[in-house]
Amino acid sequence: MGECADRQRLDRWIWHARVVRTRANAAELIRSGHVRLDGARVTTPSRMVRTGQVLTISLDSATRLLRIVGFAERRGDATSTSVLFEEITEN
Fold this sequence. Notes:
This protein has two helices and seven strands. α1 packs across α2. Strands 3-2-5-6-7 form a five-stranded antiparallel β-sheet. Strands 1-4 form a two-stranded antiparallel ribbon. It has a single domain, classed as RNA-binding S4 domain (Structural Genomics Hypothetical 15.5 Kd Protein In mrcA-pckA Intergenic Region, Chain A), CATH 3.10.290. Helices cover 18% and strands 29% of the residues.
């Protein structure tokens, strides 16, 4: 049985959204404390996320603010990620 359509594991979502190259990289990013969910630090890769939640992801090159708007069963190409999140820009 697949995952519910309204939620998904955090590490899987980050990988599907192509924030990092591998799911293992996504899990390590989370365990290292570089991911916040609605402002609270998350260190558990299996944490479930839902649409509408906001991720703050600190990467080497930049910090990204992403609002979750959808989920994917598989990792698609770069253009398919537009249905997974909205990039939030700070003014």
